[in-house]
# Entry
Amino acid sequence: MTNILVTGFTGNVGQEVAKALRIKNAPFKCAVRNVEKSKVKFGLDYDYVRFDLSNPDTFEQALENIDKIFLMYPPEVRGPEALHPFFAKVKEKGIKHIVYLSVKDVQFLPFIPHHKNEKAIKAAKIPYTFLRAGYFMQNLNMFLLNELKENGRIFVPAGKGKTSFIDVRDIAEVAVLALIGGTQHVNKSYCLTGKEAIDFDEVAKRMSSILGKKITYTNPNARDFQQYMLQKGVDPGFIKVVTNLHFITKIGLAKGMTNDYVELMKKNPTAIDTYIQDYREYWV
# Structure
């Protein structure tokens, strides 16, 4: 019986969760919008099922023989209420546990979708584990990649604010622990951060040293950032999400650190220098 559904497989965290579940030999399916495209891109070692949060017609098949879910909120979904039909189906199917990837300090941020999604999961009385994660290191090799490769710069409106970067591989480890580690993780919230908080200027310096090429941090204001991204054809909704994310960093709300990862995994989280070295092929 396949009992875990992994959403967000074509992104960074979902794919790392799938890799970690494979290592544990846990039964799971990868939820994707296009099964055939995913087979071509990611290979046949995974079991895929069609799933689209914006299309309720895909829910029934995706949830067949599923009792646990790793759930991500995709940025292209407009408004947290878009997930309400899915939560209703999850409740109807008797899903035993949702591990939901949320955001650090979400309890103090009622204006973001993750806050509302957490409330909706609780209101539906679905057993949960909330992974309230800090800023992903892998953003540097995902949506910041083109600017780094083309212009040698980190281009985000984060000011001089510090953030407690977390490696998505570490998040995936905790997600798998919550999914297969027993009931002690049910109805718990874990705040996942790295062991140090640094600003983007420091990130640029470390990348320059490790990669052997000059990386700078360009600190645009929000308006200039948004206009530049619009000119590049980036989706306006995604631009808004990214702008808000870095505004939180800019005003100093992203620098807090916790010990949750260490307590759960009995080791230190991945250092950003290690991440840069591991992913250097993306930038050089």
Q: What stands out?
A: The mean pLDDT is 94. The longest helix spans residues 236-250. The CA atoms of residues 13 and 168 lie 6 Å apart.
